[in-house]
Write a structure and sequence with these properties.
Chain A contains no helices and eleven strands. By secondary structure, chain A is mainly β. In chain B, a hairpin with a 3-residue loop joins strand 9 (83-91) and strand 10. Classes of the chains: A mainly beta, B mainly beta.
Chain lengths: 113, 108
């Protein structure tokens, strides 16, 4: 079966711009979670969506937002980009019970210049 | 203080050696993940544990809930095992907390 697909793989944006990243989960998975990975902070949890509702949120500013569509695909948006937002953004999907396995996408590498 | 501590941070081993990576956590959890990340970024979930022990091929993961500790063992290590191994705990409500990772290099 197809894995978790993240698009685009690479992205370069300018400070102040906004960006939208996409994540298509495995068919049948209703939970999509997003993570940021930087050399300094490591992996950090951004938020999780389940059945089109944000179920959990990490400690990130309001510039980071997301949504989930009825087909479980999810988008993450970052507004007013800062240099520090340069990171690998990963999403993972799961069935959504909380105790099932997670499958990660390959990530989107965002560079802010 | 980080909720999840891993040790060691870096590990170099000769091919064939038995490897242990440790993870200690300070919060109540519903489950713990061991993740593998190769250069280039892609993450693979190796194990999800809520109790006991799991084995997959040459990989073994154990967890002691009372002691808030988990270990990942690799038997007969191989250069293709070279990667960063990350411990992640899931708190109630599906909040993930990640360790800083253990960078493993296996030398032929």
């Amino acid at each position: 079966k197809a894995g978790v697909t993240q698009t685009p793989r690479y992205l370069i944006k300018t400070r102040g711009q906004q960006v939208t990243l996409s994540c298509s989960p495995i068919s049948g998975h209703r939970s999509v979670s997003w993570y940021q990975q930087t050399p300094g902070q490591g992996l950090q949890f951004l938020f999780e969506y389940f059945s089109e509702t944000q179920r959990n949120k990490g400690n990130f500013p309001g510039r980071f937002s997301g949504r989930q569509f009825s087909n479980s695909r999810s988008e993450m948006n970052v507004s007013t980009l800062e240099l520090g937002d340069s990171a690998l953004y990963l999403c993972a999907s799961s069935i959504g019970t909380g105790l099932d396995g997670y499958t990660f996408g390959s990530g989107t590498r965002l560079t802010v210049v | 203080k980080n909720e999840v501590e891993q040790s060691p941070q870096n590990l170099t081993a000769q091919e064939g050696e038995f490897i242990t990576i440790n993870c200690s956590y300070s919060v109540g959890i519903s489950a713990l993940h061991w993740l593998q990340q190769h250069p280039g970024g892609g993450i693979v979930s190796l194990f999800m544990l809520s109790s006991g022990k799991k084995k997959h091929g040459r990989l073994i993961a154990t967890i002691n809930i009372q002691e808030k500790h988990s270990s990942l063992h690799i038997t007969a290590s191989h250069p293709r095992d070279s990667a960063v191994y990350i411990c992640a705990v899931i708190r109630t409500g599906n909040q993930f907390y990640f360790g800083t990772g253990t960078s493993l290099t296996v030398i032929p």
